[in-house]
């Protein structure tokens, strides 16, 4: 290994930050102006609305499938670069003259191939973090790139025409090819054995990251003392992740073969002398089985619901806030200023998120995010009562919590929940649910409520719905905690009885 030298532009952390700057700058050059281009191309409002409604429903399954393919083939760099280039090329095809059907097909194609890019990049950046909660210090540079180039993009389009949105997007995407290709270059200490010369495949399912006051037992029982569950507000004993595993290990239905342990089978850890080491149970399970085991874990199910809830809130606000402000008499300048404030609010939220996550944990931070979503929508509903639409500006500061803090906590939680080989898949699932299914539901339900209740009533109703969603998550979390505690007692009692019987037989 060469001796350490001065930091250069190819330092992995600088490379990741530069990637975020250019990738978000390239997207702000085209994303906010797509509908303008569609209108200029002769599409009706209904046609533009249909395109906008279909896009998130395509991205959700596409993000999952692409990231799952990258994990399955261990080809993250290849899938990242291929989908990035294909998405940019598909967007450039929109410049060719075509009718509604052609534009719709190309937009959905670009959405399908571009859906996994953000998830794969985030998964790569998480590998660079010395601790999981440092992700925000990388991601804030995306907000910098977005804010820095948004004004430039508007000036170019105003003076040179709407086609320059596409040209700027393509030009700013070129640096991303070189920066993105290096995101997966450097293994880090976050990967077990990556810097210690460990044998390939000798990794543990237990995610790496900030673990205060925890120790991992080396006993064959696979117990994890003091392991704080990333989503459930209880200690993660074996019963939360491995209740059925412990049942089988204790001799219940589907019991493991003699010598197999909960740790060796459930986590894929090849313990010396275990059946997994000897190859009796196959050592490492098939990738599809790992995926099914991951998706049926209670904490993952709760996290999926939380991602949907946050996406629903984001989609509601992003789709209808400007229509509401226009109804209240807001100028275009005021609407543009709200974007500037939301972008500025992201920077400190991303910068400080590691302190909040280290101190309070992912569960409490995600609870805070959902509570602030409830407050933010309620404040929108109260805007007509405040006497001046300018009050929307301080309300927009809450975007730093609802999006930046929520996005960062969700990304960190994906890293902590996912076993090796499924990190990108879970990132893709989270982002697909957030910007895909959740966002689409927010647009669909919000549009229906707005047509029936008006925009003020829609925001009031959406605030109440977000509160109900949040309460359901907390109730489910409490139920899982009680179930796990009872299951722990049952499993422990069974193991104790069998142990006593064995001692009597030996005596």
UniProtKB/TrEMBL annotation:
Entry keywords, A to Z: Membrane, Transmembrane, Transmembrane helix
PROSITE patterns hit by this protein: MFS
Membrane topology annotation: Multi-pass membrane protein
InterPro entries in UniProt: MFS_assoc_dom, MFS_dom, MFS_MFSD6, MFS_trans_sf
Main location: membrane
Transmembrane segments: 20-39, 78-96, 102-126, 138-158, 300-325, 331-352, 373-393, 432-450, 457-480
Domain Major facilitator superfamily (MFS) profile residues, every copy: 299-507
An annotated Gene Ontology molecular function: transmembrane transporter activity
Cell location: Membrane
Gene3D superfamilies: MFS general substrate transporter like domains
Keyword flag Membrane: yes
A Gene Ontology term for the protein's cellular component: membrane
Top-level taxon of the source organism: Eukaryota
Span list, region Disordered: 196-228
Family to which this protein belongs: Belongs to the major facilitator superfamily. MFSD6 family.
Name listed for the protein in its UniProt record: Major facilitator superfamily domain-containing protein 6
Originating organism: Tetrabaena socialis
């Amino acid at each position: 290994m060469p001796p350490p030298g001065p930091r250069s532009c190819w330092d992995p952390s600088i490379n990741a930050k530069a990637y975020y700057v250019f990738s978000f700058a390239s997207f702000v050059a085209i994303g906010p102006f797509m509908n303008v281009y569609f209108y200029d191309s002769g599409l009706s409002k209904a046609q533009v609305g249909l395109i906008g409604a279909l896009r998130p429903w395509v991205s959700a399954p596409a993000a999952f499938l692409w990231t799952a393919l990258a994990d399955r083939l261990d080809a993250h760099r290849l899938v990242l670069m291929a989908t990035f280039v294909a998405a940019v090329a598909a967007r450039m095809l929109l410049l060719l003259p075509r009718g509604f059907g052609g534009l719709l097909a190309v937009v959905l194609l670009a959405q399908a191939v571009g859906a996994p890019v953000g998830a794969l990049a985030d998964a790569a950046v998480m590998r660079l973090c010395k601790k999981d909660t440092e992700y925000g210090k990388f991601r804030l540079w995306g907000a910098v790139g977005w804010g820095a180039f948004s004004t430039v993009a508007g000036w170019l389009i105003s003076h040179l025409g709407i086609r320059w949105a596409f040209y700027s997007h393509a030009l700013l995407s070129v640096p991303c090819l070189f920066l993105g290709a290096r995101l997966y270059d450097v293994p880090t200490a976050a990967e077990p054995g990556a810097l210690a010369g460990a044998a390939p495949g000798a990794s543990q399912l237990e995610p790496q990251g900030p673990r205060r006051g925890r120790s991992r037992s080396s006993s064959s029982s696979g117990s994890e003392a003091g392991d704080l569950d990333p989503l459930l507000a209880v200690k993660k004993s074996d019963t939360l992740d491995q209740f059925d595993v412990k049942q089988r290990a204790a001799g219940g239905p589907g019991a493991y073969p003699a010598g197999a342990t909960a740790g060796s089978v459930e986590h894929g850890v090849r313990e010396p002398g275990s059946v997994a080491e000897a190859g009796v149970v196959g050592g490492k399970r098939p990738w599809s089985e790992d995926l099914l085991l991951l998706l049926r874990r209670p904490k993952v199910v709760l996290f999926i619901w939380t991602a949907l809830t946050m996406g629903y809130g984001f989609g509601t606000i992003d789709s209808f806030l400007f229509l509401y402000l226009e109804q209240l008499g807001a100028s275009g300048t005021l609407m543009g200023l709200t974007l500037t404030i939301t972008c500025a609010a992201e920077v400190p939220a991303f910068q400080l998120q590691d302190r909040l996550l280290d101190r309070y944990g992912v569960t409490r931070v995600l609870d805070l995010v959902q509570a602030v979503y409830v407050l933010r929508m309620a404040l929108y509903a109260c805007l007509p009562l405040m006497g001046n639409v300018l009050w929307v500006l301080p309300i927009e500061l809450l975007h730093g919590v609802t999006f930046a803090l929520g996005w960062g906590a969700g990304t960190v939680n994906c890293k902590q929940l996912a076993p090796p080989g499924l990190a990108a898949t879970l990132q893709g699932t989270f982002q697909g649910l957030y910007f895909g299914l959740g966002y689409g539901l927010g647009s669909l339900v919000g549009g229906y409520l707005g047509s029936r209740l008006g925009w003020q009533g829609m925001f009031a109703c959406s605030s109440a719905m977000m509160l109900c969603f949040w309460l359901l998550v907390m109730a489910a979390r409490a139920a899982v905690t009680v179930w796990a505690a009872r299951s722990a007692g049952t499993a422990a009692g069974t193991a104790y009885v069998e142990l006593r019987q064995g001692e009597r037989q030996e005596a």
